[in-house]
Please model this.
Amino acid sequence: MFTDTKLRQAEDVRTIKEKSRNTPKNSAKFVESETIDDRQMKAQDLALRGHNIVITGQGGTGKTFLIKQLCKDQSKKGTSYAVTSTTGLGATLFGRATTIHKFIGLEDGRHQNNQFLHVLCQSCNNEDNITASLTNLSEYIE
Ligand SMILES: Nc1ncnc2c1ncn2[C@@H]1O[C@H](COP(=O)(O)OP(=O)(O)OP(=O)(O)O)[C@@H](O)[C@H]1O
Model:
């Protein structure tokens, strides 16, 4: 059996939930617009100008979205590009991504160091391979 106080409390909770649903949040702009925001645009601009960049930020801030957007842009232009990840799980976030080791021709990690070096050197000489690398960073965006 509910007392008046309990019913009032339940009503208050409903009101708070309703208000919070109608209150614009930081992410609201994401729902309204499917275009990149200012910070994403800054990163996109640097990437398109050929900089090596690190995109970092809290979960849900749009890193994956930005990378997908960059991929879409490259596809539209017909530019050759590759998306790689250090882990298979990471690669599943992006349609045509592979692990970095598969990308350079290693398939998996069961190689001798000299084999690894050989494949890596061959891959580096292939100018068609464009890869986002976490080394040789020239820009850092937070
Ligand atoms: N500019 C944007 N316009 C519309 N939606 C966006 C934009 N940026 C991000 N989003 C949306 O916000 C949500 C979180 O973005 P995303 O998954 O890219 O974040 P993340 O930083 O990669 O998160 P995590 O670190 O948890 O993987 C997704 O639903 C994504 O579609």
